[in-house]
């Protein structure tokens, strides 16, 4: 529970409010005290490595699964009890989209849109569907069984964006898309966000979330480990820089501005730096004539290793460490 | 040459279990039918009377073939050959498509074609593999008949006719794979050709001319348009004529010429007919879970209805004939009495026996609706529906409604066809009502299945599919054959079919009433429990 809610609550109504959510599958605890709050109009990134419990959380939010403990409200209502009523106001794209093998993509889009009740204005709906199938470069005449993973995802995305919703719940929506389509997807998110909708976007790719989201919650092993605006989480998004250590002394390395966590091991120097300071660091490295330079944005896995490495070992490891300290 | 043998080994290894099941199953059918005929129709006079009945009834001729005398061996050939040929045909078309179009569709063929195997060798390998499978099938069928005490030379002629029919359909399958874009399309087309071949010879056999002795028959010309018909004309055990089988081989050769001609000239993955595309916009009826259920289940509901209609055709036309047989043979009437519980006139019992088969079809159709619901859940497509403003219970209730409609449709198609065909063969028009009453009597048992399987879906989703089919199998076994093999009454009472009433004056309908009560109660429990059930993909 920690201080999540003090840091997390901002102005505006809470569209999604999850406190201490737990979900058991038999003896396995898929979620174990998860907190998540998403305010109206926010594009919220929901980050975690694979298996952290992102999809399970989204299923609980949709009322497809029931919370074992903790409290969950969406639009102030219980998603398990009022699922159908809440679904009028939201659109959902599952992580792994399956389609009906003998229905065409166009038919699936129409069916889902009609179920959501957004097709009353037929002309507007037809225009939106047409625009989206073209921008996503989707052939709606193919049968469901012939689509690739990326194209199945496009069908679900077109269905989600073709009719307006107050809340979009998207489970790793760009995982099957190529970079061009990722950009199209980003534009759609910006469009619905500008129209006042709230978006919850789960992902295991930090850079994607960084690009689209105003606030981020990071979960690990069914618990929220960090939440806040991207500015508050600057320390998490530092760029990693490394190069060959050959011929470079401590004195020269000390001159590099804004270097954090500088280490020398295995013949390579590595450190991290705030993303906006990279341009200041590079001329310095050029002056040092460094070899084998790599610059990479932080991956979520690295981030976990760096910031939550002790917990990643689990309670057993921690106990051993405590024993050693004594 | 080594590429060819490598491809052949790969095919043999991939198909080993599948082909063993096809071939052993077909051989077993041959063996069982040979010994069953010997037991049931052991004496010559009995066979003569059965054949006289058969020749008078086009529906039997359509299903079985044309008889050629009442010798035991010829009788077995008449009874079972068309089924064996049908199985050989389906085995061969599926085999052909599995190793041709399906491979191209999945992209595996591209990998193989990039090796020295090139474009034609894989097809040659499939051809050899399929021919070998059919030769093996022919030998197994021949051996099964020999073990079943039939005359050896004729048995090998039968085996050769089965194999020749299979090879003809192997080539048809390979040709369909050239034409269609998807393996589904190719399988469907090739299997349809097998079905048409079966129906064509059925028509020809039904329209044939009976011999003077009343136990022989020669088919009309449509039978000569069918590869299965050519196999039949070998007339094993009597004429033992191999010449018509040559027509099968000629057909295979013509198809193969076309196959290799097309294969040599087209791109990998391309097809003569473009793949079918779907609609860009859905029809306006496709707007809810019920409409979606209809769309997904319609082909299978039509299939079960056709089964019901075909059984109804028998019910309408057969009852008169079998009634004569039963009055002449007390053991036949005893067997029939044992299969349907209760009394009634022979006529009503006969209609009830036929309609109990339609009742099984209706229950199976209901089971398939519940299975579809489970498949939608495991495939993840139900998630798209349940994430929309459709509640769990509404989604569930719509599937129950679909199941109910399917049951009613299957029973109605049986009743309508039975009534009309009874009129056509000149039965008393007043008896038409019997068909509809008999159909209505089947409703409660099918509804019990629908309700119980729906509850199973809610409570034990993982077991839905396996228990759905096995519960129907067990119900059929206990309900219809339990009496014949001496299963105790309490065990027979487990089967809903045991309690299906036999409509007659003074019939006992309490079983039907109880089953309706059970069906309603179980369904209500299922709907209530569905409110608390989570979405379970595994």
Describe the structure.
The complex is a heterodimer of chains A (326) and B (538). Chain A has a six-stranded mixed beta sheet with strand order 5-6-7-3-8-9, with helices on both faces. Chain A has a four-stranded antiparallel beta sheet with strand order 11-12-10-13, with no helix packed on it. Chain A has a three-stranded antiparallel beta sheet with strand order 2-1-4. Helix content of chain A is 37%, strand content 26%. Chain A is of the alpha/beta class and 326 residues long. Chain B is mostly helical. Chain B contains 20 helices and two strands. Chain B has helices spanning 2-40, 44-56, 58-64, 72-98, 101-106, 108-113, 121-147, 152-179, 183-206, 227-232, 243-265, 289-328, 330-339, 346-379, 381-386, 392-424, 432-459, 464-481, 489-492, 510-531, and strands at residues 209-210, 217-218. In chain B, helix 7 runs antiparallel to helix 8, helix 14 (346-379) packs antiparallel against helix 16 and helix 16 packs antiparallel against helix 17 (432-459). The longest helix of chain B has 40 residues, at 289-328. The model of chain B has no long low-confidence stretch (mean pLDDT 88).
Tell me the fraction of residues in β-strands of chain B, as a range.
under 5%
How do the SSEs of chain B run, as a string of H and E? Answer: HHHHHHHHHEEHHHHHHHHHHH
List the domain count of chain B as a whole number. 2
Number of strands of chain A: 13
Q: SS-based structural class of chain B?
A: mainly alpha
Based on CA atoms alone, the radius of gyration of chain A comes out at 23 Å
Report how far the terminal alpha carbons of chain B are from each other. 47 Å
């Amino acid at each position: 529970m920690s201080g999540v809610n003090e840091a997390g609550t901002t102005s505006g109504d809470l569209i999604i409010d999850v406190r201490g959510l737990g979900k058991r599958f038999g003896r396995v605890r898929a979620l174990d005290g998860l907190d998540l709050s998403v305010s109206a109009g926010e594009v919220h990134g929901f980050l975690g490595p694979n298996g952290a419990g992102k999809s399970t959380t989204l299923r609980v939010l949709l009322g497809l699964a029931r919370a074992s403990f903790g409290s969950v409200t969406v639009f102030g209502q219980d998603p398990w009890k009022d699922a159908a009523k809440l679904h009028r106001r939201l659109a959902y794209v599952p992580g792994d989209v399956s389609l009906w093998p003998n229905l065409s993509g166009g038919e699936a889009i129409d069916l889902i849109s009609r179920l959501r009740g957004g097709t009353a204005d037929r002309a507007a709906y037809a225009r939106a569907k047409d625009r989206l199938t073209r921008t996503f470069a989707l052939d709606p005449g193919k049968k469901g069984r012939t689509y690739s993973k990326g194209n199945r995802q496009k069908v679900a995305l077109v269905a989600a964006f073709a009719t307006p919703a107050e809340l979009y719940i998207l489970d790793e929506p760009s995982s099957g898309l190529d970079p061009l389509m990722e950009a199209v997807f980003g534009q759609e998110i910006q469009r619905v966000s500008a129209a006042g909708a709230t978006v919850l976007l789960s992902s295991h790719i930090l850079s994607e979330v960084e690009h689209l989201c105003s606030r981020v919650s990071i979960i690990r092993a069914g618990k929220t480990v960090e939440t806040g605006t991207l500015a508050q989480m600057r320390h998490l998004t530092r760029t990693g820089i490394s190069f060959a250590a050959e011929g470079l002394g401590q004195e020269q390395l000390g001159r590099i501005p804004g270097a954090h966590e500088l280490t020398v091991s295995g013949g390579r120097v590595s450190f991290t730096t705030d993303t906006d300071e990279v341009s200041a660091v590079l001329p310095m490295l050029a002056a040092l004539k460094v070899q084998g330079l790599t610059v990479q944005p932080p991956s979520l896995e690295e981030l976990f290793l760096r910031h939550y490495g002790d917990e990643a070992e689990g309670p057993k490891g921690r106990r051993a460490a405590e024993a050693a300290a004594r | 040459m080594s590429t060819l043998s490598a491809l052949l080994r790969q095919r043999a290894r991939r198909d080993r279990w599948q082909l063993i099941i096809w071939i052993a199953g077909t051989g077993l059918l041959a063996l069982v039918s040979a010994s069953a005929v010997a037991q049931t129709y052991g004496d010559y006079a009995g066979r003569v009377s059965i054949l006289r009945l058969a020749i008078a009834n086009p529906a039997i001729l359509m299903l079985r073939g044309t008889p050629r005398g009442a010798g035991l061996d010829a009788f077995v050939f008449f009874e079972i050959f068309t089924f064996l040929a049908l199985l050989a045909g389906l085995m061969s078309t599926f085999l052909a498509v599995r190793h041709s179009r399906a491979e191209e569709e999945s992209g595996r063929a591209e990998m193989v074609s990039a090796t020295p195997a090139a474009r034609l060798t894989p097809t040659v390998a499939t051809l050899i593999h399929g021919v070998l499978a059919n030769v093996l099938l022919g030998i197994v069928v021949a051996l099964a008949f020999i073990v079943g005490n039939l005359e050896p030379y004729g048995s090998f002629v039968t085996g050769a006719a089965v194999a020749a029919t299979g090879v003809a359909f192997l080539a048809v399958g390979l040709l369909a794979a050239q034409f269609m874009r998807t393996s589904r399309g190719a399988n469907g087309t090739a299997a349809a050709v097998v079905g048409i071949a079966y129906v064509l010879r059925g028509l020809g056999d039904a329209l044939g001319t009976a011999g003077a002795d009343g136990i022989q028959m020669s088919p009309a010309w449509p039978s000569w348009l069918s590869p299965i018909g050519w196999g039949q004309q070998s007339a094993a055990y009597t004429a033992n004529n191999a010449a018509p089988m040559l027509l099968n081989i000629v057909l295979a050769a013509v198809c193969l010429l076309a196959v290799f001609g097309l294969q040599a000239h087209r791109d990998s993955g391309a097809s003569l007919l473009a793949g079918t595309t779907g609609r860009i916009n859905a029809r306006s009826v496709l707007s809810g879970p019920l409409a979606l259920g209809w769309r997904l289940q319609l082909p299978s509901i039509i299939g079960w209805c056709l089964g019901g209609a075909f059984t109804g055709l028998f019910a309408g036309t057969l009852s008169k004939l079998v009634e004569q047989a039963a009055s002449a043979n007390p053991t036949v009437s005893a067997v029939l009495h044992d299969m349907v519980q209760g009394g009634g006139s022979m006529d009503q019992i006969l209609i009830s026996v036929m309609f109990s088969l339609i009742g099984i079809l209706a229950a199976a159709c209901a089971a398939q609706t519940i299975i579809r619901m489970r498949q939608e859940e495991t495939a993840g497509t139900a998630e798209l529906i349940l994430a929309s403003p459709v509640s769990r219970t509404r989604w569930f209730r719509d599937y129950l409604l679909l199941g109910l409609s399917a049951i009613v449709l299957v029973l109605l198609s049986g009743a309508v066809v039975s009534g009309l065909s009874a009129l056509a063969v000149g039965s008393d028009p007043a008896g038409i009502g019997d068909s509809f009453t008999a159909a209505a009597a089947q409703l409660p048992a099918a509804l019990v299945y629908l309700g119980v399987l729906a509850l199973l879906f809610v409570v034990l989703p993982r077991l839905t599919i396996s228990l759905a089919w096995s519960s129907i199998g067990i119900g059929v076994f206990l309900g219809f054959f339990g009496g014949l093999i001496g299963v105790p009454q309490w065990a027979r009472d487990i089967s809903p079919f045991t309690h299906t009433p036999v409509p007659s004056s003074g019939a006992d309908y309490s079983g039907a009433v109880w089953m309706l009560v059970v069906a309603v109660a179980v369904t209500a429990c299922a709907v209530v429990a569905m409110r608390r059930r989570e979405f379970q993909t595994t």
